[in-house]
Amino acid sequence: MKPGPLITRDCEGQEKRFLITATFDRPEFKIWAWESAKCELSPHIMINTSFSSGIKYILETSPEQLVCVDTEKSLKFYDFRHESEKSKKEEEEK
User: Fold this and answer.
1) Which of 34, 36, 49, 64 is least buried, going by the fewest C-beta atoms within 10 A?
2) What is the C-alpha separation between 36 and 67, in angstroms, rounded?
3) Would strands 65-70 and 75-79 be described as parallel, antiparallel, or unpaired?
């Protein structure tokens, strides 16, 4: 699944792939950009969460959404959408 534009930023035409990492002891996750042509892995985005402990699982549920589970089995949803897109979608659902 290709990540959405707020995750990729302006890397659309480039040959980049994205990797997400997290640790059990820190309440943050990082998105890394892998550029295969240069064989280079570089930091892309770091997200600080409201978890009090570390993150155990991360799942990409859609191109614009990640779900994180902490070590205490709490779920948090992270949407990567512009506010205008969110309000449009909410209006359409009504």
Assistant:
1) 36
2) 27
3) antiparallel
* 30-86 confidence digits (pLDDT tens): 999 888 888 999 999 899 998 988 899 999 998 889 999 988 889 999 988 877 666
**Structure letter (DSSP) for residue 4:** P
Nearest Cα residue to 18 out of 55, 53, 66: 66
Residue owning tokens 């897109």: 85
Distances (CA, A) of 26 to 17, 46, 54, 66, 71: 24, 12, 4, 17, 10
Percent helix, strand, coil in the chain (nearest 5)? 15, 45, 40
User: Which of helix, strand or coil describes residue 3?
Assistant: coil
